[in-house]
TrEMBL record:
Binding site for NAD(+): A117, N183
GO MF annotations, alphabetized: aspartate dehydrogenase [NAD(P)+] activity
Name this protein carries in UniProt: L-aspartate dehydrogenase
Residue ranges constituting the Aspartate dehydrogenase domain according to the UniProt record: 161-246
InterPro entries documented for this protein: Asp/hSer_DH_NAD-bd, Asp_DH, Asp_DH_prok, L-Asp_DH, NAD(P)-bd_dom_sf
SUPFAM superfamilies from the UniProt entry: Glyceraldehyde-3-phosphate dehydrogenase-like, C-terminal domain (SSF55347), NAD(P)-binding Rossmann-fold domains (SSF51735)
Additional remark text: The iminoaspartate product is unstable in aqueous solution and can decompose to oxaloacetate and ammonia.
Gene behind this protein: nadX
Recorded metabolic or biological pathway in which this protein acts: Cofactor biosynthesis; NAD(+) biosynthesis; iminoaspartate from L-aspartate (dehydrogenase route): step 1/1
Family: Belongs to the L-aspartate dehydrogenase family.
Amino acid sequence: MRIGFIGYGAIGRDVIERIGREPSGDWVVTGVLTRSDRMIPGIPSTSRLSEFLEYEMDLVIEAAGQDAVRAYAVPILDAGCSLVITSVGALCDDGLARDIEAAAAASGVRVFFPSCALAGLDRIAAAREGRLDRVSLTTRKPPAAWYGTGVEHRYDLDRLTAPVRVFQGSAREAAQRYPQSVNVAAAVGLAGVGLDQTSVEIWVDPACQHNVHQVEVEGEFGRFSFEVNNFPSENPKTGVIVAMSIMKLLKNLTAPFVMGI
Ligand SMILES: NC(=O)C1=CN([C@@H]2O[C@H](COP(=O)(O)OP(=O)(O)OC[C@H]3O[C@@H](n4cnc5c(N)ncnc54)[C@H](O)[C@@H]3O)[C@@H](O)[C@H]2O)C=CC1
Ligand SMILES: O=C([O-])CC(=O)C(=O)O
């Protein structure tokens, strides 16, 4: 499987290193689309989409941001490559979501949304096979995760001594307002009762050591809830599990046994 990447940050670099450590995996990284021209040792890279598309890829992994999904998803699918999207919040734009689905269908390729920082997107989506009554997400991250977001301008992050709820609303609003921080909200919304029906709370918590996501789901199947406590990666906004989740997806696509899809 020939794989291209959009973005060479915390997630992209980690996945590429993990692929390099698994020589038995049937994966070759053929190139990286970067924001500015930069050299990546041993891997072709470019900031130009036309050049990127010449790398001959079966699958492209987006690990760059919601803008990159807006700019590149449709042309990449039109070129016949399947796509992994981490910046799921881009699909809060219903028109873009429809265009991405139509482009994938027209090219006969697929778009994958791994669980990334969350768990159990498979279970939420399975529950949607019956009646779903309620889905909610509560996200808590330490102050360090909120620099470079709108929260930084509203609170003195260095001096917070108690948890502060900085958002309460729908999954759509959450993922649009905090595009680098709660793509998980869009993922839960799209997998379950919908972006506008999924309720989300976001907290900045100075006592938090992890990036925490709590999900509660109720419906015809019964009820489940879970909490993930993710160690941050080199990017404090992003859990280290995200790269692992992408590796699991690559194994799902190539291994004879597919566990917990
Ligand atoms: N679904 C989920 O659970 C999660 C989703 N994410 C998404 O993944 C994104 C990337 O996360 P990290 O790797 O931690 O971020 P990062 O900031 O460490 O790296 C992003 C890289 O992408 C590059 N980039 C940005 N826009 C680009 C563009 N238009 N074209 C090419 N390269 C571009 C940046 O220069 C940077 O090198 C986040 O912004 C978020 O949207 C992150 C964590 C969890
Ligand atoms: O890694 C996380 O905690 C989640 C994240 O950044 C996102 O959903 O965009």
